[in-house]
């Protein structure tokens, strides 16, 4: 027996067994294998189709997300502008109110100062009048030390009073 060249009987049996195995595989094995390959192919195709649909959905969701982000940014800008305008209005109103209050305070202070000034002037006039009366009293006492001088002075005062009293002719 030669290892490199087989005998014809062995070759016959090998061909016969190969044919039987091939027939059995062709009849029972290949259809099952072919069905499995076709099922696997359909499954892969279906998975690819689903993956494409998922990719499309992801793209549409990403587009929606971008649109929402842009909308949110626009809303944010609008709110910031409104807040800025509102801030300016509040500041302007606060300035106006502060100016009004300061004007009122200044007017009140001026009124109080004027009242204090008038009060001080009245007090000064009163003091001057009292001092004048005191000085006049001392001067008159000295000048009117005699009865004759007193009588002359009283006549002068009565005359001055009579000149200052309105008469019916003046009316």
Key descriptive features of the protein:
171 residues; mainly alpha; rod-shaped; 2 helices
How is this structure best described in words?
There is one protein chain. By secondary structure, this protein is an all-alpha fold. It has one domain (8-163). It has 2 helices and no strands. The longest helix is centred in the middle third of the chain and has 136 residues, at 8-143. The radius of gyration is 65 Å and the shape is rod-shaped.
Describe the secondary structure blueprint for this structure.
Blueprint: H1 8-143, H2 147-164
The arrangement of helices and strands along the chain is HH
Mean pLDDT: 87
- Provide the number of structural domains: 1
Largest sheet properties: none
Q: What is the helix fraction of residues, given as a range?
A: over 70%
Task: Give the overall silhouette.
Answer: rod-shaped
The percentage of residues in β strands lies in under 5%
Number of helices: 2
Rounded to the nearest angstrom, the radius of gyration is 65 Å
Give me the count of strands.
0
Report the uncertain regions: none
- How far the N terminus sits from the C terminus, by CA atoms, comes to 180 Å
What structural class is derived from the secondary structure elements?
mainly alpha
Brief overview:
The protein is mainly alpha-helical. It has helices spanning 8-143, 147-164.
């Amino acid at each position: 027996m030669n290892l490199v060249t087989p005998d014809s009987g062995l070759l016959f049996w090998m061909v016969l067994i190969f044919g039987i195995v091939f027939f059995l595989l062709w009849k029972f094995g290949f259809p099952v294998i072919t069905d499995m390959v076709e099922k696997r192919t359909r499954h892969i195709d279906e998975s690819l189709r689903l993956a494409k649909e998922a990719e499309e959905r992801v793209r549409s969701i990403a587009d929606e997300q971008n649109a929402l982000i842009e909308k949110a940014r626009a809303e944010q800008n609008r709110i910031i502008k409104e807040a800025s305008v509102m801030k300016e209005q509040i500041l302007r109103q606060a300035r106006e109110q502060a100016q009004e209050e300061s004007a009122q305070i200044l007017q009140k202070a001026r009124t109080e100062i004027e009242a204090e000034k008038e009060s001080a002037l009245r007090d000064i006039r009163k003091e001057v009048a009292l001092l004048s009366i005191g000085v006049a009293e001392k001067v008159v006492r000295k000048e009117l030390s005699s009865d004759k001088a007193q009588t002359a002075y009283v006549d002068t005062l009565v005359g001055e009073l009579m000149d200052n009293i309105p008469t019916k002719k003046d009316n």
